[in-house]
């Protein structure tokens, strides 16, 4: 299949600009791949749709305020720096804006406490910068001066509400520049109810970076190269996943990031092996899923790698018809939008 096969038209007013008033209040579309059905519910009722012995696998990455505003030391020209990934202790891959005015050798100053030197360019148009090592925890400094890097389709400045709501309730490990948005719907109460029902909640980590969102710019999907993102699957989590699978329970991944980790670490005997490292896995048709039995996901952008993954899992025709029904029923789309459960 080609990139153009994954294009759909979305009315702009369906792009959610704010989260729902309360977590768990979003709508939930339910897709059944066996009977090709589409049904509608509330997200808080997801507890009734999973069975004892199933597992929800969640991405417990934590978003940090990766958008920094500073200036060039010699000219005082304003520069926006978006932290993408940490290469070494003080060395980061970043995006800068305006990119054409930031060159190797420039020094950038962020507030009074952070300075960095531009030391290299990246093949994707970014920069490599080296921050000063002043003996203070870098992430503590960033928490003080950074903003949450909301996606560009949210047409408003960052507000206080985003510090809480653009983060899952189970986020633990700092390192993402964007939220794994399918997890934003879960509340502590929903998770507690799932556990009481006998559904395992199993964590892993994928630090969401630009690779998840970089547009596909080639018609031949096999030529698209994802940026690598760091992941971790612990020995304890791997054992629990394998036990659930062995006992006939469903492995339900919360978000496309979780799907990509599980499919990265799956081995031929349909188990997973604990590991950590970098994945650039891009899932597109035809693809046989090795580990994932269900997905909780948001509604994604046309022609994005996330939408292509969902179409691959659902089946192209079912996914296309479900998205059209979501548009007709005025579901809210993208990061702060409504959710879908595919079983």
Can you put this structure into words, describing what you see?
With 343 residues, the chain is α+β, with helices and mostly antiparallel strands. The chain folds into two domains: 3-63 and 162-342, QueA-like, CATH 3.40.1780; 67-145, QueA-like (Thrombin, subunit H). 20% of the residues lie in helices and 28% in strands. It contains seven helices and 19 strands. The protein has helices at 138-145, 160-165, 188-197, 235-246, 256-265, 305-314, 316-328; strands spanning 27-32, 37-42, 55-59, 61-63, 67-72, 78-86, 91-97, 107-110, 114-121, 127-131, 173-176, 200-206, 229-233, 251-254, 266-267, 271-272, 275-279, 294-298, 339-342. Strands 2-1-19-18-14-3-12-13-17 form a nine-stranded mixed β-sheet. The chain has a six-stranded antiparallel β-barrel with strand order 5-6-7-10-9-8. The longest helix has 13 residues, at 316-328. The chain is globular. The relative contact order is 0.21. The model has no long low-confidence stretch (mean pLDDT 94).
Provide a short characterization of the protein structure.
The chain has 343 residues and is of the alpha+beta class.
Keywords:
Thrombin, subunit H, 20% helix, globular, 2 domains, 7 helices, QueA-like, 343 residues, alpha+beta
What is the succession of H and E elements? Answer: EEEEEEEEEEHHEHEEHEHEEEEHHE
The fraction of residues in strands falls at 25-35%
CATH level-two architecture of the largest domain: 3-Layer(aba) Sandwich
Main pleated-sheet profile: 9 strands, mixed
Physical arrangement of strands within the biggest beta sheet: 2-1-19-18-14-3-12-13-17
From the N-terminal CA to the C-terminal CA, the straight-line distance is: 23 Å
Low confidence ranges: none
Helix tally?
7
Structural class: alpha+beta
Number of domains: 2
CATH first level of the largest domain: which class? Alpha Beta
Can you count the beta strands?
19
* Assembly form of the protein: single chain
């Amino acid at each position: 299949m080609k990139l153009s096969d994954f294009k759909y038209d979305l009315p702009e007013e369906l792009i959610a600009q704010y989260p729902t008033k309360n977590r768990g209040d979003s709508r939930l579309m339910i897709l059944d791949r066996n009977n090709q059905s589409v049904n509608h519910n509330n997200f808080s009722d997801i507890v009734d749709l999973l069975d004892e012995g199933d597992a929800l696998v969640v991405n417990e990455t934590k978003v940090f305020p990766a958008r920094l505003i500073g200036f060039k030391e010699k000219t005082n020209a304003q520069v926006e720096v978006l932290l993408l990934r940490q290469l070494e202790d003080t060395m980061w891959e970043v995006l800068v804006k305006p990119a054409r005015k930031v060159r190797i050798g420039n020094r950038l100053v962020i507030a009074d406490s952070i300075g960095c030197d531009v030391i290299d360019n990246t093949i994707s148009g970014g920069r490599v910068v080296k921050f000063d090592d002043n003996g203070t925890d870098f992430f503590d400094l960033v928490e003080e001066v950074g903003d949450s890097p909301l996606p560009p389709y949210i047409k408003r400045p960052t507000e206080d509400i985003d510090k809480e709501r653009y983060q899952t309730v189970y986020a633990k490990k700092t390192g993402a520049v964007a939220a794994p948005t399918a997890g934003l719907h879960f509340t502590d109460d929903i998770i507690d109810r799932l556990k009481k029902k006998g559904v395992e909640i199993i964590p892993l980590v994928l630090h969401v970076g630009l690779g998840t969102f970089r547009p596909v710019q080639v018609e031949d999907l096999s030529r698209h190269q994802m940026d690598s993102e760091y992941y971790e699957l612990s020995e304890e989590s791997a054992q629990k996943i394998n036990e659930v699978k062995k006992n006939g329970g469903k492995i339900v991944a919360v978000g496309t990031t979780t799907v990509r980790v599980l499919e990265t670490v799956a081995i031929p005997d349909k188990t997973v092996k604990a590991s950590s490292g970098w994945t650039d896995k891009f899932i597109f048709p035809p693809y046989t899923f090795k580990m994932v039995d269900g997905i909780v996901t948001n509604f994604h952008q046309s022609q994005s790698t996330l939408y292509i993954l969902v179409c691959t899992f659902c089946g192209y025709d079912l996914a296309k018809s479900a998205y059209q029904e979501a548009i007709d029923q005025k579901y809210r789309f993208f990061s702060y939008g409504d959710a879908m459960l595919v079983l």
